[in-house]
Fold Alanine racemase.
Amino acid sequence: MAHPETRETDILKAGTVGALATPALLLDKNRLDRNLARLSSRMAARGVALRSHMKTAKSIEVARRAYPSGPGPITVSTLAEAEYFALHGFRDMTYAVGVAPQTATRAVHLRKAGIDLKVLLDSPEQVAILGEAGRAAGVVASAFIEIDCDGHRSGLTTSDPKLIAVAAELAKAGIKLAGVLTHAGESYSLCTPEALVAAAENERAVAVAAAETLRAAGHECPAVSVGSTPTAHFAEDLTGVTEMRAGVYMFFDLVMLGVGVCTADDIAISVLATVIGAKPEKGWIFVDAGWMALSRDRGTAAQRIDQGYGLVCDPSGKLYPDLIVSQANQEHGILAIRSRSAATLPALPIGTKVRILPNHACATASQHELYNVVSAGSDAIEALWPRMRGW
Amino acid sequence: MAHPETRETDILKAGTVGALATPALLLDKNRLDRNLARLSSRMAARGVALRSHMKTAKSIEVARRAYPSGPGPITVSTLAEAEYFALHGFRDMTYAVGVAPQTATRAVHLRKAGIDLKVLLDSPEQVAILGEAGRAAGVVASAFIEIDCDGHRSGLTTSDPKLIAVAAELAKAGIKLAGVLTHAGESYSLCTPEALVAAAENERAVAVAAAETLRAAGHECPAVSVGSTPTAHFAEDLTGVTEMRAGVYMFFDLVMLGVGVCTADDIAISVLATVIGAKPEKGWIFVDAGWMALSRDRGTAAQRIDQGYGLVCDPSGKLYPDLIVSQANQEHGILAIRSRSAATLPALPIGTKVRILPNHACATASQHELYNVVSAGSDAIEALWPRMRGW
């Protein structure tokens, strides 16, 4: 099925990077396409479906590039995302946040409207809530059981007797068991290929074992869903896994650089900023991008290389050696040379434009209304792709 | 002059807190009004104008409550704010971020449209840029010289010879010198009344000295503008100061609680969230408010009491003892008892609503589209006040 034609972005007028009001979010289309192709070909080679997570991009235009032949299976982090992508033709989606009474009601209404929306749960209480919502709406709900593979967040361990109990409750409540779902959240804190390969294998093994436990108890467990951007790129064996979830892989960011999943040249989004002053005696250059444009995320603070609030490039994307956003106020960023570096502060007169690579693509992109889409080597803004937000 | 009638919010339908989709931003109108009255009466008693900073609230409805008798003098952090408040009848504003070529052009266009917009600068380069923009637009620009009172950010020190040089350049370029402006950024890291009184006095003394230096050199320097929420509340003497700037005082937050400017009962905004699970063996309760709803701000991490990603209340606003948001993923928050506390985790079944007080009001509010306005003791949402965003 082709994507329906709802290109509301055609009405927006594009221009040049040089003429953009700053701060502004840039998206490098070539890097995006390369990142999309890298993971989708990796999964295709392993026969595993890629259920991309839309929480990073939150954009129908990006989703269309991720699924060029038509709406594919997606993951969403909010029901507002589910509704937005449903309006744009996506049908097969998983809402990967534990379900509660109000979200259960809203989710079954989407199911009633023909959207194959699966929800997530890990307790008999949630089964009762979802069963009640499904009965009230007159639809059969569908749920993943969340599995905990690394103690990172919610979910049941494979050995927890509640695993079979929850599956039994689902059956009694007339809810479809979609499968098991786990997320190797721990992988974001790793930084060696060996550790990432091991985390991916653990994620796979735990999910498959949970599915086998359920199947041995007589429950159908069609899907075995795993995923995080690091494990998606380092998994060597995906036997038993039916689908991979990942979101930040589309854009990448400095945290993923620190983990070792990408290079700086793969990072597809950046914040364009303008130099507004300097304090040479302190080694400071001021730009008009503070935490409102960059987000407060300091995910690299715990990594081997602390990137401050971001790494600084010239407008063409070339990195300034060791120049980072060392501090951020609401609308001010302070550029400085990383501590213990021998690099010198570049001369950047007032009005100079810079591009800042973000720590965390999900957080930085969410500070902006839209993507200014650019291609390497060109000053033209080819398109403006709006982002959705809210819950 | 009365506020023009542009109440677009009347078209929005309000409901009850109990029926709100979560996460959602609540604004307690009683607390807001109390906070507004506290600082405006403090300034009125000292004969100092209050030029409220709109970067925190970004809402015309909040601005109208801050200036009940009609549009007053405001500070803005972006030109999008300047344009938004201008459209709603505000005329006297200061854009408190250093000016650069594109913002100079946009600012003088606002001046040409009748808005008394002052910009900020601290270098001869910026004077040249602003002068050029003013000539091109055929208007007389107006600028504050930024003064550095505590080494926190940009600005000139009183003894810097550039101070008089910049004033002379302004005169030559035909730009009006609005005055001097400083911000005691250091005050956010303080936590005793003595230190705050001293920071306020330093802010005042440096600003007044800068103005006197300019006047002694023959420059008119009408405004002496100081401000930060902590110093605004602790200044004992404001001799020579003509106006006070503050923004977060409208809502307050946990950082301000740690500084000692407010009590938890003064914090006017909170994020309503729903319990979606638990992991009792780890002492964890999961809610559907992660950093997307709370922001990544960890401003209390450097304070004596680290509030994690926020302090947790019941829906009526009553604090649970030592219950904080200890971790935050994009759409998940993990509630836990603060370390080294003897408090016990409350029983909060799935579906329970909680209210989370934010670390940083500016950052948390910016994650939301609108304020759900409530009053103490009532479940009714009295109004929906949209927020503006972007640059």
In short: Residues 193-216 of chain B form the longest helix (24 residues). The first strand of chain B starts at residue 24 and ends at 28. Chain B has two domains: 30-250, 268-357.
